[in-house]
Amino acid sequence: MNSYVQRVLDDTKQKYGHEKEFIQSVSEVLGSLNPLLDSESKYEQNCILERIVIPERVIIFQVPWIDAKGDIQVNVGYRVQFNSAIGPYKGGLRFHPSVNLGILKFLGFEQIFKNSLTTLPMGGGKGGANFDPKGKSDREVMSFCQSFMRELFRHIGPSTDVPAGDIGVGGREIGYLFGQYKKIVNSYDSVLTGKGTNWGGSQVRPQATGYGCVYFACEMLKTRKLDIAGKTVMVSGSGNVAQYAAEKAMQLGAKVISLSDSNGSIIDPHGIDAEKLAFIMELKNVRRGRIKEYVEKYPTATYYENQRPWRLAKCHIALPCATQNELDLDDAKVLVANGCFAVCEGANMPTTLEATQFLQSNDVLFSPGKASNAGGVATSGLEMSQNAIRLGWSSQEVDERLHGIMVNIHNAARNAAAEFGKPDDYVMGANIAGFRKVADAMIDLGI
Ligand code: NDP
């Protein structure tokens, strides 16, 4: 390993070893910059690695709120403003009981390079709270969101920091957050993305991450003269990204056989069709139910409690779209043994480092989330552009732009990897292409 990379990695591990997801993501990014840093000394001369692994600013705050019984609840809120070299901070808000500073630092760090890959002017950030929307009434979620925004509003702005959704934060939460922001500042600022289309949102934003992931998978497959049509696809998760990854894969002729949530997975050997997907969308987005209810409606499917999809059936293509570290080395071994030839990450870092290395060394096409799930933030960037010019583009126009961006990200990652002799290494390519632009901007902007 390059000695500069090794030194910064060791130092980061020593200081932040307890933030294991953050260390995992720093190890992946820095580990793949070796060839670039071997050939360019300016990054070391400007201490870019030392600077890029430390957030520019972290805000941690108390979020008190009143539940339906009238009792006082309190959660911890965060915003990690990681890097603003190429634009205002941009990245989602996650509401999940597992949220802590280490997880948000990992997500914010990934976001820097993802946003750079989109070619849009967006810096990297992430935020959220250890709040669990599951089982809460709409009024309780509203009360929480309003309290969260009563602190966050002073740290964000259309040219400062523009949050969006993530796990546990969908259209409902963005609405409550934006309503509170607007009331406090008395201005219809473009300060959140993922808004509803009749109050400033973009067409195709809900679909963008999942669709973009499948567009990226198709580009990878093309490099081997393969087509997604007729292939069997496994998807994990059943939230925003999973639903639309499944929808696009189906539209392009694939057979999607799995979905999951944090309690278990379903396998439908007949494939999930448009009618079944509509049932899932109503189940998860409106009734906020559990994926196991799928088998009550469609008894030819099977539900597996506490299991992830990867070892439950055979597939050609895997799209992990739930959460971090949900595909480990043992899963990867089973996927390869069952003939899987492409893994395209819809979630952020769903594949462990060991599993990634195993897949790559077994010639599986593998794309890291920062490349293949960048369609969501790219379309958020398009939402900001539409807000700035006070116009809305049609679904077709946004979808075409999204498709073009995903093709460009694929080519940028592949070309950067090819420049250093490994065209199929999308991890290295995405990290180098994303890093170079941000690091060069940091140098231009001075210390
Ligand atoms: P949602 O909240 O809509 O859905 C998340 C899904 O993952 C749910 O099915 C959820 O199950 C499942 N899940 C959450 N935590 C776990 C866990 N610990 N173990 C197993 N399953 C879990 O979130 P999104 O679809 O928006 O996000 C999914 C992933 O995609 C995340 O990694 C996110 O960071 C990433 N992402 C999202 C983008 C977006 O635009 N939304 C953009 C780029 C990346 P349950 O219902 O039981 O909680």
Kindly report the average pLDDT value.
Answer: 98
Order of strands, widest sheet: 9-8-7-6-10-11-12
Shape: globular
Q: What percent strand?
A: 15-25%
The major sheet is characterized as: 7 strands, mixed
> Which molecules are bound besides the chains?
NADPH dihydro-nicotinamide-adenine-dinucleotide phosphate
How large is the count of helical segments? 18
- Radius of gyration using CA atoms only: 21 Å
Number of beta strands: 12
Describe the fold and architecture.
With 447 residues, this protein is an alpha/beta fold. It is built from 18 helices and twelve strands. The protein has helices at 3-16, 20-31, 34-39, 42-45, 48-52, 101-117, 138-152, 171-185, 205-222, 240-251, 274-286, 293-297, 329-337, 353-361, 369-372, 375-389, 395-419, 426-445; strands at 57-66, 72-83, 89-95, 123-129, 161-164, 232-236, 255-261, 264-267, 302-305, 317-320, 342-344, 365-367. The protein has a seven-stranded mixed β-sheet with strand order 9-8-7-6-10-11-12, sandwiched between helices. The chain has a five-stranded mixed β-sheet with strand order 1-2-4-3-5. Helix 10 links the parallel strand 6 (232-236) and strand 7. Helix 10 runs antiparallel to helix 11 (274-286). The two termini are 27 Å apart. The mean pLDDT is 98. It binds NADPH dihydro-nicotinamide-adenine-dinucleotide phosphate.
